[in-house]
Request: fold
Amino acid sequence: MTPSAETAIRAATDDEIASVEEQLRLLFVRVRAVWKEAAAAVHPDLQPVGYKIISALVHRGRMHAGALADTLEIDKSVVSRQVKHLEALGLAVTVADPNDGRARFVEATPAAIESIGQKGSRMQQQLYASLRTWSGDDVDELARLLARLTSEVVAPATTDSASGD
Reply:
């Protein structure tokens, strides 16, 4: 049985896909700007990649540096440099892994937890306020489509693209 003209699914055109690509580019530019603003609000010397690292530690708890690199898809050497910088800023500490004396955990300091919580909640409030103006169906559809795109688009992390900028 062949689908009728009404039920046939039309393939996206190159122009439509280019429009999505442009909107994603604009979203990523804005996200980078938000990370830069959030980093500066936590500490004037904090870089956006450092903000991403400390934010991950605040939200996920202490982690090994390698796990941070894997989770954030950034190079281990970047994590190592940023952890040292976070320690110098008083935002992170390294502690011995009780199960392996040679390994170290990185964890957020109480000051980082408080600061990230305040900054994160402001950004989260903005997102929630914006999405509350949408219909529930639209928000569900956005989440579904983003999940689908995320699962289908595989971009391997490289040292060039994974610098965290």
